[in-house]
Design a protein that fits this description.
14 strands; globular; five-stranded antiparallel β-sheet; single chain; alpha+beta
Length: 266
């Protein structure tokens, strides 16, 4: 990563990003940034060339070779402008921002799997190429984004994983990709915060739904407590929950859980 060029482009003193640090290797950028959140200003960015203990949702590990992807975390402090009950939208916002940035910079269509996965098409198959993890800190949220960029089939941890390279992205240089994602995140976050975190007024809810590959699919949601819900994913509600219609016509909003795409509903 070209640290000096990234800092010149992003840490301008006029925008959201207040600092940008790149480390060669660390366990988890989310853990590191969370530990320092109290001493850092909003807009701090921590990037790692390699993560040795990267984490996803449900404490899943995220493993990738050094310099094969983008592994970074940002510190956001929505403050009194946004009620805390709307902070849950930040995971979905980060997904929209990442997909938008990658579309512009790499010419690759990136779909969203509720709530926090980024999907690309590899040989016609839907594969996970990235994930997002948001964690609350004292007065803000640390958002971690992991994105497979140049990983080959032999380097992928599972067959269902993908990368921008395998999706035939026009750009796989991580420097412009990181700039594009952070600029997109700055724009979406600014609009959302200016709207008081209102997902409808900021356009976030509509844009997320338009790019969400989960909607219209027959899904299985594995919920906390061991319960399983099966049905059609119909909408994302004002609280960012996935609305599932079961076979008996009942509609249930899922706020947390692991969702598996079964098939598209015709």
């Amino acid at each position: 990563m070209n640290v000096a060029a990234l800092q010149r482009a992003l840490v301008t003193g006029e925008g959201l990003w207040t600092s940008l640090e790149v480390v060669g290797s660390t366990g988890s950028t989310n853990s590191d940034l969370s530990a320092r959140a109290g001493e850092l200003a909003e807009g701090a960015v921590l990037v790692a060339e390699q993560q040795t203990a990267g984490r996803g949702r449900l404490d899943r590990s995220w493993i990738a070779p050094a310099r094969s992807g983008l592994f970074f975390s940002v510190l956001l402090k929505p403050g009194p402008q946004v009620p805390p009950e709307r902070w849950g939208w930040l995971t979905l916002l980060a997904g929209v921002a990442t997909a938008t940035g990658l579309s512009r910079a790499a010419g690759v269509d990136t779909a969203l799997k509720w709530p926090n996965d980024l999907l690309v098409a590899v040989d016609g198959e839907e594969r996970k190429t990235g994930g997002i993890l948001a964690e609350r800190v004292d007065d803000g949220v640390v958002i971690g984004i992991g994105l497979n960029v140049t990983m080959t089939d032999d380097e992928l941890p599972v067959e269902t994983a993908g990368s921008l390279l395998l999706a035939k992205a026009s750009v796989t240089d991580r420097n412009p990709l990181l700039k594009a994602v952070l600029r997109s995140l700055e724009q979406w976050y600014g609009d959302w915060r200016a709207a008081g975190g209102d997902p409808a007024a900021s356009g976030l809810q509509e844009t997320y739904a338009a790019g969400c590959a989960t909607l219209g699919k027959h899904v299985r949601a594995e919920l906390p407590g061991g319960r399983t819900l099966t049905g059609t994913a119909e909408a994302v509600d004002a609280d960012g929950r996935l609305v599932v219609r079961t076979a008996d016509g009942e509609r249930e909003a899922v706020g947390a859980g692991d969702v598996v795409h079964l098939r598209s509903v015709r």
